[in-house]
Amino acid sequence: MLKLLKKELSKEDVNVLIWFNPWKAGSPSNIYECFFEQLIVTVKKYSKNAPKEITKYAKSLMSAYDDNPLIKLLNASDLLVTENNLSSNFEIVNSIIKNTGLRFVIIIDDLDRLTGEEILDVLKLIRNIANFENLFFVSAFDYEYVINTLTKSDSVSNAERYIQKIFQYVLPLPPIRKQVLLNEFQKMMETVILDSKDRGELEDALYSNSFAWHENLHETYYVFEKYLDNIRDVKRLVNSFQISYSILKDEVDLAELICMEILKLQFPTVFLQLSKYKLIKRSENNKNVYEVDKSPSEKYDEEAKDILSFLFNSFGKGIRSIIYPDNFLIHIHFQLFNVISLPEWNEAKTKSIEEFFTVAKRWCDEEKQSNLLTLLKNIIPQENYDDYLKHIKLMVLLEGYSEWFRNILTEDIHYLMSRIVTKFEGQRSDGGISYTISQKNMTTTTNTDPDGCPAEGLLKMLSGKWKAQIFRLAAEGPVRFSMLLRQLAGANKQSLSVAIREMEEQGLLIRNVISEKPLHIEYVLSEKGSALIPLFRQMETLI
Fold first, then answer.
1. Distance, CA of 66 to chain centre
2. What per-residue confidence (pLDDT) applies to 436?
């Protein structure tokens, strides 16, 4: 706003702009001195007598209004101050400024960066100087912050009334729409992130359902809504985030990384408490994850409550969520410690099973078994039969190799083997597979069972909570997570998330990121799902 004002005022030669930043003065005692130095430098271009007379007036003013008796005495010894000579000095300076025929517009920025004492000194300065003809003051500040700061400092009895007496006209600016702040963050980050893949992942994090988690706001972006107020906040976030992102982009959940950076910037004390494990505890339902400690030993800013709830809510969290102890250390210390790097894991998956197993044994020797187990249980190939089978084989080999893994993976192996029979049925020329398992070997044999009834297959795929309802709505057109949450009475985020994920794995749903603004996510039936609509309709008529 001030830049626009400066641009318009600069169009007329009669206007002379003085941009005064009181926070650069360093202390309340220097504010007057810095201001008059700037005024002298500007006005002397138009009047030779300006430096001498303005200096004389400044000395008399500071000695008259300074509360320090010693400063009063020192200044008075150089110039005996009375109301008459203060008034006389004022008239002389006023005449000098008036005779220039110019308008001197003093723009005071960043008033809301000051302490209560400094703010009061600036306001006193404006009060004492504003009576000069052809001298105008314009100030931009956070009104609420200035009022609260003055009130807390006990500088004035009624801060709001005092402000009204200083400024003849107050123009409240409309608040910036929070979507604008989100867009600005994304635009600024585009100058930092040059890789199109990384940009896509950042967009996905910003507009994902996990980031728009708040139950009352659905697809508005609650973290930005609550904790960022202006473009300055966004710039600070970009400066902080790009450093963390450059180190951790492949290792953590990006939506959580953004929230952690906001926590650091807006609540540094809370972040320090969190880094010392003072605000979290092991979940009562799952000892392998953290949750917010609802009654921590130390108090923390209540304003930070929602962002902590977002970070340590277990709903919809991925493999690299901060709720897992190993990942928490990555966020706090920027180091992997006993955690397997995701790029390293992805590279190992491309190798043969023998090479993959060799790498896995090295991870075990490095005492990374716990994280390896987490990866095996959560990052399962979804599309490729050979990768899926390799994943299962690695589990079997690890059970035979390490006492630590003995019997831990057995249930998972049986579950995945049962799924591989149906998941890839019809995709292989041998007509499917069956299996036998031992700790040292795994063999596959041909499955000769005939295909089952199509209706029975569809019923199996849609068994489970909310799947049939989601399929019915998706058959009508694209659906969003928030729409499903509203339309399916009794549904909650966790059960819907599980149902959608399973339908994606079954090849019924496809997840699309829509690039319109605001960017959002839609789910549509796949070709396989669309082909089942007629069968689904027939089944509906029978129920």
1. 45
2. 40
